[in-house]
Specification:
Length: 547
């Protein structure tokens, strides 16, 4: 076992806080030490994970506290870098060194070239080997990156980070744009990396590869040792203990209230009896007034003591509640969209996918699909998975053959084009649904889109929040969808939302065609069929749930 006390600190955060220009505090009093242990950062959508990563990388300045960096840090953002007439080497951040090496080989080096190269004399060979290992054999460092797919750009950006002179890598949702082969490559690169690694991800495959998970919550950071399985177990144990402490505090407060009520009633009866005795006793008026005043003072002292005790118990309940990780109910309420078993869902007759050559393997499909099927579409980046969904949705027409979708459908693409970023989700949903505003707000709250978020322009929402808003727009229309076309629906979702959408889709009676490289999500979906791209073309087969 690694002795973490002997690992050198790469970055240290001490009581860091961040406040937006308009005054909202995103988080406060965060302290964390990062060393060479592979670490994952998780947390609910919108809690500030990406912003915290940029603070650690030095791209932003904290509003308070201190961040000390003892080594070079590199940050790879969620979205692949835009090509903008850049070469592959420029996107990787190695162009200057490769040019310096080329000048040296040609005998045209200058003194600055030695400084640029430093000890990276074999960088050209490592870049070529890295591109080949990443499945980018046909791509050269010198070529322009314009026209490369999102998955290719993502791998190029990640490869550049792994090849850089960096002691700590921060990877923000690195697997979102990668196919199955790309994810396998990423896992291998992570396993081979010998520097520090901070991965912001909810990809459960990646979370199984780390040695520590840190959760960012509205109440601060929680540290968990171990991988995803241990994180789940520790988190559940903490939640159970905190919930039990909260219940104990509430029970104690309830018992104390009942005891105080009994005590109050008893003393009140005695005080009433004392006043009655004073009225009938053969004593002077001053003595009678003294007896009545004493009874009144006793009641006042009792009330004061009771109030003080209740304040203490209320504070204990609030403290216990603050230790409980809130688990708001996330529910993607789907419409009644059952598909009868004999109902045709869609038909493809020698349908030729756009963008693919007529004689290219997989360019034509023929099949007829009936009933509430669940089709998982598998294949590498660039084989036409997203194009197929667009064709089924009617966004693109086949350039040959026929594609007919027979039932109402809802299409959710990776770019979330359903959303108008300048308008709020409430503005966009209102005209498209029969639900009144109160019901809409209730349903959106179950998606953790609270009263403030539903009236903000969608451009201000986090990646996960935008995906939830797009799901609402796709699923809560006036005409219920009987076919869901989902293109990487779990990208950007937090762990709780991932589990929620898995549970919701598990009970949804609609037919589905789902493109996803998240193997855990596909397993939870329990597909009835797999549509898989192979070198010989597309193959539709029934799922084997027997083993």
């Amino acid at each position: 076992m690694t002795d973490v006390t002997r690992l050198p600190t790469l970055v240290s955060l001490h009581r860091v806080c961040f406040q937006f220009a308009h005054g909202q505090t995103l988080f406060d009093d965060l302290s964390l030490t990062l060393d060479s242990r592979p670490t994952a950062l998780v947390g609910r959508n919108g809690v500030g994970k990406s912003l915290l990563a940029r603070l650690i990388a030095g791209q932003l300045t904290p509003s308070g506290g201190a961040i000390s960096r003892f080594a070079a840090v590199a940050y790879v953002p969620q979205l692949p870098a835009q090509a903008q007439d850049q070469s592959v080497a420029q996107l990787m951040g190695v162009a200057d060194v490769l040019h310096a090496l080329a000048r040296m080989a040609a005998g045209q080096a200058n003194p600055e070239d030695l400084e640029r190269v430093d000890d990276r004399w074999d960088l050209a060979q490592r870049v070529r080997a890295g591109l080949d290992a990443a499945g980018l054999e046909q791509i050269s460092p010198e070529q322009h990156a314009d026209g490369l797919s999102g998955g290719q750009l993502a791998r190029i950006g990640l490869l550049g980070a792994f090849l850089g002179n960096t002691a700590l890598l921060i990877l923000d949702e690195p697997s979102n744009h990668l196919d199955r082969a790309g994810r396998a490559w990423l896992l291998q690169m992570m396993a081979q990396w010998r520097g520090g690694l901070l991965v912001i991800s909810h990809d459960r495959q990646l979370l199984r590869q780390v040695q520590r998970i840190v959760e960012l919550t509205p109440r601060g950071l929680r540290n968990y040792g171990g991988d995803y399985a241990l994180f789940q177990a520790q988190r559940e144990a903490q939640h159970t203990a905190a919930q039990a402490a909260l219940e104990h505090a509430r029970d104690e407060r309830s018992r104390e209230r009942k005891r105080q009520q009994r005590e109050h009633d008893t003393i009140q009866r005695r005080a009433a009896a004392s006043r009655k005795n004073a009225d009938t006793a053969n004593i002077s008026r001053p003595e009678r007034a003294g007896m009545k005043g004493a009874a009144k003072d006793i009641m006042g002292h009792v009330r004061h003591a009771h109030q003080a005790r209740q304040s203490d118990l209320d504070a204990q309940v609030r403290q216990a509640y603050s230790q409980v990780i809130e688990r708001p109910s996330t529910l993607f309420t789907l419409p009644g969209s059952a598909v009868p078993a004999a109902r045709q869902v869609f038909t493809l007759v020698d349908a030729q996918l756009p963008w693919l050559a007529p004689n290219e393997p997989g360019s034509r499909l023929t099949c007829t699909v009936h009933g509430p099927v669940r089709i998982a579409v598998n294949g590498p980046n660039g084989c036409g998975k997203s194009t197929l969904l667009k064709m089924l949705a009617g966004v693109l027409a086949p350039i040959g053959g026929r594609c007919t979708t027979h039932v109402p459908h809802a299409y959710l693409d990776q770019a979330l084009t359903l959303l108008d970023d300048q308008r709020s989700v409430l503005e966009q949903l209102g005209p498209q649904t029969t639900l009144d505003e109160g019901e809409l707000r209730t349903r959106l709250a179950l998606l953790q889109l609270d009263a403030a978020r539903v009236v903000q322009p969608c451009a201000h929402l986090s990646g996960g929040e935008r995906l939830k808003a797009a799901l609402a727009l796709a699923l809560w229309r006036r005409t219920p969808a009987q076919l869901l076309l989902l293109d990487e629906p779990t990208n950007h979702l937090d762990l709780e939302s991932l589990e929620a959408i898995e549970q919701a889709l598990a009970t949804c009676p609609a037919a589905m065609v789902v493109v996803s490289h998240d193997e855990d999500f596909i397993a939870a979906l329990a597909p009835t069929h797999h549509l898989t791209w192979q070198t010989s073309g597309w193959h539709l087969r029934a799922a084997d749930h027997g083993g």
